[in-house]
Amino acid sequence: MLSIENLTMSVRDHQILRGVSVEVAEGETVGLVGESGSGKSTTARAALRILPDGAEVSGNVTVCGHDATNSVAVREVRRTLAAMIFQEPRSVLNPVRRIGDSAAERLVYVHGMPKSEARQRISELFVEVGLKDVDRLLRCYPHQLSGGMLQRVVIAAALSITPRLLLADEATSALDVTTQAEVLALLRRLQREREMGVLFITHDLRLAAAYCDRVYVMKEGSIVDHQKGDAIFVNPTQQYTKALADAVPLLPERDSTVRA
Ligand SMILES: Nc1ncnc2c1ncn2[C@@H]1O[C@H](COP(=O)(O)OP(=O)(O)OP(=O)(O)O)[C@@H](O)[C@H]1O
C-alpha cells in the first residue's frame, strides 16, 4: 500500500530526512512516533511529494504500486488513492468559506463532480463520521464549530475520495480525551470497513503502542526503532525509545488516606 525506501531530504544544506524506510500494508495501522522536529510530518508530506521550496529529495516511494516520486504519477495518487489529515483542522479550512464548500472542494475541483452531487456525498459522509444536523453544518463557517467537529469534517473530506491510504498527522492531538477516543474509534471503524492502510503520526508513544499494529520511532530524521505496537512500550529495544517511554508523565497515585 505504502512503501517508503531510503527517503532522504535536505533543504538549503539542512538535512531533514536521513534514509527513512517505512512500509504500510493494506488494512494495517502503522505508527510514526518521535519528538517534535524529528521529521514525522515531513516524511508523510514527502511521501505525497508535498515538498518545501528548495527541497532536494532522493529515495523511492510507491503508493498502491504507483511511483510517487514521479510528479505525474503522484498527482493520480493524491487524486484517487491517498489522503492526508493534517494536524490542525483550523489551519486547513478556509475561515471565510462555508464548511460544505470546503469539504466538497476535492470532489468538485479535482474529480469534476457536479456541486449538488458532491454536496450530497459530503452530507452522507458527515453522517458517517458522526456529525449531526448536517444541513445546518454545511452552511456554517469553521469558527462556528468545535475542534472535535472540525476534526470530523476534515476526516470526512479526506475520506470523500475513498482513499486506499490515509496519512493521519496528529489527527487527534488537539482534542480532549473523550473526543480523541471517539475520533480514534471512528477512524478504526472506517479503516476496517474500507481496508485502508493508515500511517498514524503522533508524538504520543503510549497512544501509538495501543492503537497501531506496528510502530516506527523517528529521531533527527532517521528511523531508530521499529516494533509491533504492543511490544514497543513493554520492551523498547533502543535507548531512545526507552527514553520516550520514560518521558510519558505518570500521575502519582492518589493517597487513599486523604479524604475529600
Ligand atoms: N519548509 C522547511 N524548511 C526547512 N526546514 C523545515 C521545513 N519544514 C520542516 N523543516 C524542519 O524539518 C525538521 C522536521 O520537521 P517536522 O515538522 O517533519 O517534524 P515533526 O516530527 O513532524 O514535528 P512536530 O511533531 O512538531 O510536527 C524540523 O527540524 C523542521 O524545522
UniProtKB/TrEMBL annotation:
SUPFAM superfamilies: P-loop containing nucleoside triphosphate hydrolases
Presence of keyword Cell inner membrane: no
Pfam family for this entry, one: ABC_tran
Keywords of the record: ATP-binding, Cell membrane, Membrane, Nucleotide-binding, Transport
Domain of life, source organism: Bacteria
Alphabetized GO MF terms: ATP binding
Family: Belongs to the ABC transporter superfamily.
PANTHER family: DIPEPTIDE TRANSPORT ATP-BINDING PROTEIN DPPD, OLIGOPEPTIDE TRANSPORT ATP-BINDING PROTEIN APPD
Name recorded for this polypeptide: ABC transporter ATP-binding protein
Organism: Kibdelosporangium philippinense
Lineage: Bacteria, Bacillati, Actinomycetota, Actinomycetes, Pseudonocardiales
